[in-house]
Amino acid sequence: MSLELAREVLTTEAEAILRLRDRLDDSFQHAVEMLAGCQGRVVWTGMGKSGIICRKLAATMASTGTPALFLHPAEAIHGDLGMVAPGDVVVAVSNSGETDELVQLVEYIKRLGNPLIAITSNPSSTLAGHADVHLNLAVDREACPHNLAPTASTTATLALGDALAMVLSVRKGFAPQDFAQLHPGGRLGKRLLTVGDLMHTGEQLPRVGLKTPMKDVIYEMSSKGLGITTVQDESGRLLGVITDGDLRRLMEADPNPLTRSAGDVMHRGAVTIAPAALATGALRLLETRRITSLVARNQWHRCLPTTARRSEQWPNAAPSLGGVSMRQWDQANGSGAPCPDCVGPLVRRTPTVVAACGASPPRRIPSPCRPSSPAGPARAPPCVSKSGR
After folding, report:
1. Is residue 44 part of a domain?
2. By residue range, what is the domain housing residue 90?
3. S-S: 327 plus which of 127, 164, 270, 350, CB 3.0-4.6 Å?
4. Do residue 156 and residue 255 come from a single domain?
5. Which sign does the torsion angle of CA 211, 213, 218, 219 carry?
6. What is the pLDDT of residues 55-67, one digit of tens each?
7. In this structure, what is the dihedral angle of CA atoms 76, 80, 85, 91, given to the nearest 10 degrees?
8. In this model, does residue 166 exceed pLDDT 60?
């Protein structure tokens, strides 16, 4: 009995949506045009269960590029009508089209001169008569066994409102990047974070010069804690990087490693990524290359300056862009994300994205990386020659 009734309820509500799909006509297109031309906000209003649906639809529109809010009809006629401003479009929802509080509110809305879209199942209702555009739900029976509780009508309203929101979103060119800006929290937002969103800046950037003694290089790497330092010329342009692995190899090969300078030890170039790239792409690159750090820079092999601070070592250098700890992204994504302490079989530190800022672009733009080899992590070809060009 229970399963049979449940199937009947689901069938009734599904049929309500399918009938609605088949009934879409020019009225829906007119509603879209009115909402797309809205200079203010979309004001959803409804009583009872319809009001709950309106709250959800206002939230859906607001999160997909269409500013919207919910206005309670009863509260509106007791002062909240001031929430409706010139340029707003009002969408009123009532299955019968005769809800007293809504009919009373609509009379004031019309006096204010705001465009009105009505969603009802009764084209002859008072609400439909006041509306500039009427969208007919055409729900003749609820899924409730007694045909009383709003069920099929609210489901159809929700589906129709979602259709309006999605059409508007596509029409406005709402992109995943826009979605990320409106969803900074939760897993959805973290999936759309960019490298630039996570970058460390200012003092967190490890940077040394070509002639910096290895003692100072080691101090710089230890104090910044990123497992890497950038090597820059006097103009602030990236020349190469020194990693923890470079230090270990130096100590194994040279009995007097502290007599060297940064220019002797660094390897030119680095595996790079654009600041606008998704953080998920950065993590994938780290795993693929089996490395722990990336250098983020723009198409000119320079990073976009993000702070007003200038280097104390090189006062004429351009402002610097720091590193990005991927641990933040990993932790924010919860247990389903890769382990922040073990990304890839050869990585035993938190992956980090670092960046360096240069004052002028190099004359050529080489490929940022080569395919990995079984012998170990691949290194990028030099981005700057010995002459600095």
Report:
1. yes
2. 2-174
3. 350
4. no
5. negative
6. 999 999 999 999 9
7. -30
8. yes
Q: How far is CA 239 from the centre of its chain?
A: 33
Query: Which of 218, 232, 225, 227 minimizes the C-alpha distance to 203?
Result: 225
Please tell me the predicted confidence (pLDDT) of residue 100: 94
Residue 235: which CATH number?
3.10.580.10
Q: Does the pLDDT at position 103 exceed 80? A: yes
Helix axes 26-36, 152-171, angle to 10 degrees: 50
- 337 with 271, same domain: the answer is yes
What confidence tens digit (pLDDT) does each residue in 273-332 have?
777 777 777 888 888 888 777 777 655 444 333 322 223 332 333 333 334 444 433 444
Residues 24 and 147 in one domain: yes
How many domains is the chain partitioned into structurally? 2
Looking at this protein, which amino acid is placed at residue 262?
A
Does pLDDT of 189 surpass 50?
Answer: yes
The verdict on 218 and 157 lying in the same domain is no
CATH number at residue 144: 3.40.50.10490
pLDDT value at residue 193 = 76
User: Where does the chain have alpha helices with state H?
Assistant: 2-23, 26-36, 48-63, 73-76, 100-112, 126-130, 152-171, 176-182, 186-191, 195-198, 214-224, 244-253, 262-265, 279-289, 326-332
- In the chain, DSSP finds a helix count (H) and a strand count (E) of 15, 13
Confirm if 190 and 276 have CB atoms less than 8 A apart.
no
**Amino acid letter, residue 301:** H
Instruction: Specify whether 329 is located in the same domain as 216.
Output: yes
Contact 123, 136 (CB under 8 A): yes
Q: Identify the pLDDT of residue 200.
A: 67
Looking up tokens 């009863």 gives 74
Token pair, residue 130, equals 């006041």
CA nearest 205: which of 285, 310, 347, 282?
A: 310
Cβ distance 65 to 168 under 8 Å? yes
DSSP secondary structure string for all residues of 275-302 = TTSBHHHHHHHHHHHT-SEEEE--TTS-
**Domain co-membership, 25 together with 139:** yes
255 pLDDT higher than 60: yes
- 285 and 371 Cβ atoms separated by less than 8 Å: no
